[in-house]
């Protein structure tokens, strides 16, 4: 057996946590030979629920689950963790403006960034809680001792949604779909890009009508979360947990040459500028990701990428006063 690694999950009493924790404990995220210790963080008012989740985790008798603890304090929860899945966030309440939501969550992620910086500066972080990209930016900026590359925001659910939709349209299995890219924000402005995608070995753009791509595919991927809420009466939970598993699994174990989309700190490439957490295609090697470089961007893609970039800049402006100088 390998020595155990510790994985923190925030929002552990929530809907995504309820699916994600069991996947991690079963080995689905870090591999079938990797023991794990789980650190569950939620609000003080949710500690009974956290206890209940831990009872169920114990009842599964997962061979890889070597320990767990429930916490309501971020510093205690993050001490020495190897991975942190930051799922918990304040939901948009009645009458709450988007700006209020950004500010409320920025405070949470500023505090969690500081706590990770203090107790686990080597941790690899995926931010799931919305607004994920900007929450990630603020956490990263409050963790000056951590490599910025260790902070990522999840857009993998958008990728898998896009892959599923494209496969269905082309009448192929999802295995036959490759190189779909999600650019930008995990929001309605995201750009699901099939310019470089292949479907069953053919260029997706040749296999799929352009009209369907622009008028149906892009808005459907971007609005899929709302469609799930309408159908289920609750937001995506199992699919979000699965996407978090894919995101961290690729990062930890490598993506075997496959492209994956992740929100990562921008480095000036593709006209994105700097200091934004913007989703780009990466290829993962065990423990690291590398941006895919040299992709051609046509005028339509450039326009879509710019729209989502502008939204991220506006989000950053709204919480600017919380970013350390
Ligand atoms: P739930 O409302 O079921 O659970 C959220 C949990 O977080 C609650 O138990 C709450 O007590 C806890 N929480 C709130 N503030 C916290 C804090 N400061 N520290 C620790 N825990 C805290 O939401 P759920 O459906 O699990 O969704 C969680 C987040 O994921 C939401 O922000 C949601 O918008 C976001 N999503 C992100 C997705 C993505 O692709 N990036 C997709 C799915 C999901 O919508």
Describe the structure.
By secondary structure, the protein is of the alpha/beta class. It has 2 domains: 5-153, 3-Layer(aba) Sandwich (Rossmann fold); 156-318, L-2-Hydroxyisocaproate Dehydrogenase, Chain A, domain 2 (Alpha-Beta Complex). 43% of the residues lie in helices and 21% in strands. It has 11 helices and 14 strands. It has helices at 15-26, 47-60, 74-78, 98-119, 132-141, 156-170, 204-207, 210-222, 224-232, 238-253, 299-318; strands spanning 5-10, 36-41, 65-71, 83-86, 124-127, 151-153, 177-178, 181-183, 191-193, 198-199, 202-203, 259-267, 274-285, 288-291. The chain is globular, with a radius of gyration of 19 Å. The protein starts with a strand and ends in a 7-residue tail after the last helix. The site of ligand NAX has 29 residues, from α1.
CATH topology of the largest domain: L-2-Hydroxyisocaproate Dehydrogenase, Chain A, domain 2
The overall average pLDDT, rounded, is 96
Measure the end-to-end span.
Answer: 44 Å
Number of domains: 2
What's the tally of helices? 11
Give the helix level as a range of percent. 40-55%
């Amino acid at each position: 057996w390998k020595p155990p690694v510790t994985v923190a999950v925030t929002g552990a009493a929530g809907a995504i946590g309820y699916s994600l924790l069991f996947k991690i404990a079963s080995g689905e995220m870090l591999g079938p030979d990797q023991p794990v210790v789980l650190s569950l963080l939620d609000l003080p008012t949710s500690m009974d629920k956290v206890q209940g989740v831990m009872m169920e985790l114990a009842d599964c008798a997962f061979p890889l689950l070597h320990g767990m603890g429930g916490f309501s304090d971020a510093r205690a929860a993050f001490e020495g963790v190897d991975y942190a899945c930051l799922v918990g966030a304040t939901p948009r309440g009645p009458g709450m403006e988007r700006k209020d939501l950004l500010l409320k969550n920025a405070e949470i992620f500023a505090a969690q960034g500081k706590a990770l910086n203090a107790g686990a500066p080597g941790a690899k972080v995926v931010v799931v809680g919305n607004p994920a990209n900007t929450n990630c930016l603020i956490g990263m900026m409050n963790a000056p001792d951590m490599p910025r590359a260790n902070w990522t925001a999840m857009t993998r659910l958008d990728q898998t949604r896009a892959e599923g939709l494209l496969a269905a349209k082309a009448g192929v299995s999802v295995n036959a779909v490759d190189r779909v890219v999600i650019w930008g924000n995990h929001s309605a402005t995201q750009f699901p890009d099939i310019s470089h995608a292949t479907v069953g070995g053919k260029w997706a753009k040749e296999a799929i009508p352009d009209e369907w791509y622009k008028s149906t595919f892009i808005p459907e991927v971007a609005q899929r979360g709302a469609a799930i809420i309408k159908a289920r009466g609750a937001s995506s939970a199992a699919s979000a947990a699965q996407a978090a598993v894919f995101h961290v699994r690729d990062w930890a174990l490598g993506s075997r040459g496959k492209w994956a989309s992740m929100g990562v700190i921008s480095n000036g490439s593709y006209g994105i500028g700097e200091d934004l957490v913007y989703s780009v295609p990466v290829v993962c090697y065990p423990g690291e990701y590398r941006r895919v470089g040299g992709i051609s961007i046509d005028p339509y893609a450039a326009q879509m990428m710019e729209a989502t970039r502008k939204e991220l800049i506006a989000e950053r402006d709204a919480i600017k006063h919380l970013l350390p100088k």
